[in-house]
Amino acid sequence: MKLILPKAWIQDRKKDYYYKKAKAEQYRSRATYKLSLTAIKYPFIQQGDVIVDLGAAPGGWIQAARKIVGKTGFVLGVDLKPIAPFPQEYVRTIIADFTEPEALQQILCFLPRKPDVVISDAAPNISGVWDVDQARQIDLANQALQLALKLLRPRGNFFVKVFEGELLTEFIATVKQHFEIVKFIKPKASRAKSSEMYLLAMHMKSTPTMVEQAKTEETCSGTTSEEDWIE
Ligand code: SAM
Q1: What ranges do the domains of the chain cover?
Q2: Could you list the active site residues?
Q3: Where are the alpha helices (DSSP H) in 5-121?
Q4: Can you name the residues that pair with 200 across neighbouring β-strands?
Q5: Which of 26, 57, 64, 114 has the lowest CB atom count within 10 Å?
Q6: What pLDDT digit, counting tens, does each position of 84-137 carry?
Q7: Whole-angstrom Cα distance, residue 182 to residue 36?
Q8: Where are the beta strands (DSSP E) in 82-124?
Q9: Residue 97 Cα, ligand 1 centroid: separation in angstroms?
Q10: Mean pLDDT over residues 212-229, rounded?
Q11: Residues near ligand 1 with C-beta < 6 Å?
Q12: Could you give the CA distance from residue 110 to residue 220 in angstroms, rounded to a whole number?
């Protein structure tokens, strides 16, 4: 089915600086710059790091993270939708709903070790009803946080998309319980009129929810991988 987009929206997008830049630099999305510009200002991703990217399609953040971590690192992209594969051995993608309980094990199966950083640009389908959309966005951010707390190594970092609004205050309080430093980020590449913003949480405190990585052939066989991606 072909998606028909409003003409004004398409024209607006074409004029957009980061849209053009992403096209010229062969990035999969303008969102790439939201991560790369933040990571330049606050170097929370290092060369050699293991990264889990939640809500990763079409893969712009994967590209940004891959550049920073390089060959000695590893990036795992997770999305409900298939992501066109990357040729690099240190980049993998899986189709999964990270809010489902089985996602933890699915993710662990692909990781070489506990991740240093979990990033989430996951976004729900927008209904257009502000309260509903904000609640859905914060719920997704909270689910990403809960998963990050189980996955991350001690003192690991977390970067997540949120929407401004009432529910954000409570979410920030929860994040602050688990991380030593929490910053609000409105990346330049984020549209000024959008209520989207990001939280950067650094240095995870030790938490009882952390799980040991249990990878056995049994638990990891039959995991959906990018080989299931269909063009
Ligand atoms: N960061 C990406 C990039 O740079 O290309 C863009 C991400 S896009 C804004 C949001 C993504 O979140 C969508 O692809 C959507 O399918 C994904 N998503 C939403 N809910 C999800 C869930 N429960 N599990 C996995 N992915 C989810």
Answers
A1: 31-205+216-222
A2: 161
A3: 7-15, 17-24, 32-41, 60-69, 103-110
A4: 159, 183
A5: 26
A6: 999 999 999 999 999 999 999 999 999 999 999 999 999 999 888 988 999 999
A7: 18
A8: 91-95, 117-120
A9: 10
A10: 52
A11: 28-29, 31-32, 55-61, 78-81, 97-99, 121-123, 140
A12: 8
Nearest residue (CA) to ligand 1, atom 24 = 97
pTM: 0.89
Distance CA 163, CA 193 (A): 12
Cα separations in angstroms, 201 against 119, 178, 179, 198: 10, 9, 6, 10
Query: If you measure from the C-alpha of residue 77 to the centroid of ligand 1, how many angstroms do you get, rounded to a whole number?
Result: 10
Say which CATH class 31-205+216-222 falls into: alpha beta
pLDDT of residue 14 exceeding 80, the answer is no
Residue at 70: amino acid letter: G
CB 158 within 8 A of CB 118: yes
What's the length of the chain?
231
> Could you tell me what percent of the chain has a pLDDT over 70?
83
Residue 81 alpha carbon to ligand 1 centre in Å = 8
Residue among 33, 73, 37, 81 nearest 55 (CA): 81
Predicted confidence at residue 209, as pLDDT, reads 55
DSSP summary character for residue 54 = E
* Residues 120 and 144: beta-carbon distance below 8 Å: yes
Looking at the DSSP assignment, which residues form a beta bridge with residue 95?
Answer: 79
